[in-house]
Amino acid sequence: MSYTSIKFLIFVTVTILVYFLFPKKWKEYKWTVLLLASYVFYLFAGIQYVGFILFTTASTFFGALWMDKMSRSTKDYLREHKAELSRDEKKKRKERTKRNKRLVVALVLVLNFGILAFLKYAKVLFMGGTGDLLVVLGISFYTFQSMGYIIDIYRDTVPAQRNFFKFALFVSFFPQIVQGPIGIYSSLAEQLYKPHSFDYDRFRQGFLLILWGLFKKMAIADNANIAIKAVTDHYQAYGGTTLLFTVILYAFQLYMDFSGGIDISRGVAQIFGIDMMENFRRPYFSKDISEYWRRWHISLGNWFKTYLFYPLAMSNLFLTVSKNIKKSKFGSTKAGAHIAKVLPTSFASFIVFFMVGVWHGANWKYVAFGVYNGGIIMLAVLMKPVFESVLKKLHINPACAPYTVFRIIRTFILVLVGYVFDVAPTFEESMMTFRLIFTDQNLRVGYGEISELGLSKVALIYLALCAVFIFIVSVVQERHASTTIRSALIKKPAIVRWGVVYIAIMAILIFGVYGSGFNAADFVYAQF
Amino acid sequence: MKKTTEKTLNKKPNKKRRTYRNRVIMILSLVLALVISVMFLQEFVLCNPNHNTERVRGFYLEDKNSIDVVTIGSSEIYCAFAPGLNYKECGFTSYPFATEGNTVRNFKAMYKEAVRTQDPKLIVIEINGALYSDANMERDANLRRVSDNIPLNENKTDLINSSVTENKIEYYLPFIKYHGSWDKLQNTFAWTISLMQDKLRGYTLLKGVKTFNEIYKTESKVFYKNDKALKARRALFNEADKTLKEFLDFLDEEGVDKSKILFVRFPHVVTPANITRYQRGNTIGDTIRSYGYNFVSFEMDDEGIDLDPYNDFYNIEHMNIYGQQKFSKFFAHYLQDNYGITASDLTDKQKAEWDEAVRYYDAYAAYNKDMIESGAERTEIGESYFIMKEIEKYLDK
């Protein structure tokens, strides 16, 4: 069930009605409505996928309980035998518990990431095909979310959930299961279980966010996708100008598509009284690639930062390497001291982005995408003193506006380079794209090719105007980050508020891509 | 003090009630505004408006039981049969209930609609719709030109149900399909205005007629009536054959008066390029006659219409203004002589409308001829807004 379908609209409306009309005397069970709705939503994708999510739910839930039991029994034992046990015995006991917990968490992680990896890579590695073995709805997102929980339990940062069904809701909450944001148990779970009453202001805010998301997804991204698909379907048929145009259009399309989808998810959740984290914060205004990844798919970045980056950067191996460099002759130089200081974090960043690339799919282009991003971040961290000294020599104030604009444009170009790996069907074709972009620029040919991509001149102008509109909105959001445009709108007179809603709905209805689609050529009578 | 507190307490629920009432009013207003906007766009703007839309909808604008002859079929009809000229010549009213690429599959619904809205003295059915290949029979556009413009009723539902299995909702709410045509509005703007004008006026001015200002030139051999090849029969495509027979069975089941239906084949330029269509036309004639209906082919000018294949057509299948005037006059008299179609008994208002149609047809014909003789760029000459502005310059000249 697509988030942009009528079916989803009806499904959400019914769920909202059932949730808020749920009898008050059973209000502590209100969350069961969300659980039921989430599983109904999941069943729409196909009954064959339910086994996967149930396995992740059960293995994580019981794994967590098992670890929790270990922690409790150790705590109880230590409390009961506080006086009898020596310090060493206490330490040993704690270490044994930690070791056992580590075994359990490793088992759960291997099982669940193993399923994810098997489905993603088995076809390529063992069957000689391409693509995923089986596309299970939301498996990446609910696996990451659940594994975050089990690691939190291992680290004793959250108490284990003792109600299987409540945990099942945390794993399967329908607004976020398709594309995130990846929720953190400590901030999401209690919101899910709390019985929320209907709040008109929340409803308005959520509804406006859904409209905004639908506009971005249906009226912008899906229109742009017509041209992108035309290129990727016959990738080798196009010259450098068209490929460059496609990569730029892709940057716009991907942002509108992904952030639009997340806005719909967040809007639906907000109506239920649940605040999901912001997943995008104007990423194309980033001044460097690290910042870009802190603004793009924020929940995934946070997940990797919390559960992979920090453990790596703080690992004994990295810290030992860093210490050894510091102690060495090289470490006594200015450059050596800097490298010793930042090496753990820069290597950890590289590994994280390599993993992000690998996670995208079994294709060398994704590996290249990960290596490219990780490499840039690593270099940026390692070379920071060099860049700073160059700026100083050139008498450039890093805080001045022109330099900030330069950094934003430079970062956007670096992001575009990364997108080439994403757009091109294979790694070889991404290399071909780079070659053609630099050696095959011809505006006349490009214009001819672009006008044949399924978008009329009017549609291209429309997309350009949308880009300007999104830019203006983003500038406003960037300047007034403490509040939202929605909050400002709600304070406006009724005629303005309702007028905006009317315009937004009409824009989605007219410019949105849905239905079987009109093709003027179908209506041209061949002989007439 | 007590009074003030009571007042404040009473005020609170009132304020709350007022807020709820205002919200309900605003929500209902929004829904109403959205429905009206979508209906307006669907009716006039995002509906792929063109001459087919205007002609089919124009048929429904005619007063009930005011049309004497309804012609059902495809593009041959509105290029060859001019209601304004027929009225001027013979005094009876007629209307081309026809669309581009109209297949025999649509005929049943169109026939039922014709007899539901009018009480015609004769229904003329041009058989081109039974000549199509299976692929052409399945073309969505050939169905939509008809189904999109028939008002919602049982006949429309039957037509949709018998023709499509998927996305049926789009046939009842064409906005879903056509909303994406916003980037083509520049091409359809003139028809949008014309549709709105028709609706406000309550009738069309040219009664669905249209043609191109062009003379067909061929270097190919043109067949004449005594050529041997014209006697041959060729099997129809499967789907067309099946659907034609289903339509004839339907007419039998309805128990229609066979003298009130005439199947025809309108004139074409017959060359080696379309001789097979001619031969299939012969087969269709045999089938229709086997059911006991009248079938007349004017394809070879057997009746002495005096059509010139090198002057009176704009392409192999369609007549230009010269052919249209010759054939329309001829056919109007043919119907008068052979089917006793006489001048209509019209109200004053209807008479005024048809007199206006004659004036506009004459202006249309004069403009058309001027366009051909001046060698103007190939233009579709029908009732679209900007063309009508040009035609109006020829009124009463």
Description:
The complex is a heterodimer of chains A (528) and B (397). Chain A contains 22 helices and no strands. Chain A is mostly helical and 528 residues long. Chain A has 3 domains: 191 residues, no CATH class; 153 residues, no CATH class; 95 residues, no CATH class. In chain A, helix 1 runs antiparallel to helix 2. The longest helix of chain A has 40 residues. Chain A is globular, with a radius of gyration of 26 Å. The model of chain A has no long low-confidence stretch (mean pLDDT 91). In chain B, 54% of the residues lie in helices and 7% in strands. In chain B, strand 5, helix 13 and strand 6 form a beta-alpha-beta unit. In chain B, the strands form 2 sheets. Chain B has a 5-stranded parallel sheet. Chain B has a single domain, classed as Rossmann fold (3-Layer(aba) Sandwich). The radius of gyration of chain B is 25 Å and the shape is globular. With 397 residues, chain B is an alpha/beta fold. In chain B, helix 5 packs antiparallel against helix 8. Chains A and B meet through helix 20 and helix 22 of A and helix 1, helix 7, helix 10 and helix 11 of B.
What is the assigned CATH homologous superfamily of chain B? Answer: SGNH hydrolase
Q: Strand fraction band of chain B?
A: 5-15%
Q: What class, by secondary structure content of chain A?
A: mainly alpha
Secondary-structure element string of chain A: HHHHHHHHHHHHHHHHHHHHHH
- Approximately how much helix is present in the residues of chain A? over 70%
| Name of the CATH class of chain B | Alpha Beta
What is the chain-wise order of helices and strands of chain B? HHEHHEHEHHHHHHEHEHEHHEH
Question: How many independent structural domains of chain B?
Answer: 1
CATH architecture annotation of chain B = 3-Layer(aba) Sandwich
Strands of the widest sheet of chain B, in order across it, are: 2-1-3-5-6
- The helix/strand class of chain B is alpha/beta
- Name the biggest interface: A-B, 28 and 40 residues
How far apart, in Å, are the first and last alpha carbons of chain A? Answer: 41 Å
Sheet having the most strands of chain B: 5 strands, parallel
Mean pLDDT of chain B: 92
- Total of helices of chain B: 16
**Rg calculated over all Cα atoms of chain B:** 25 Å
For the termini of chain B, the CA-CA separation is 88 Å
Note the main sheet of chain A.
Answer: none
Q: How many domains in all of chain A?
A: 3
Number of E strands of chain A: 0
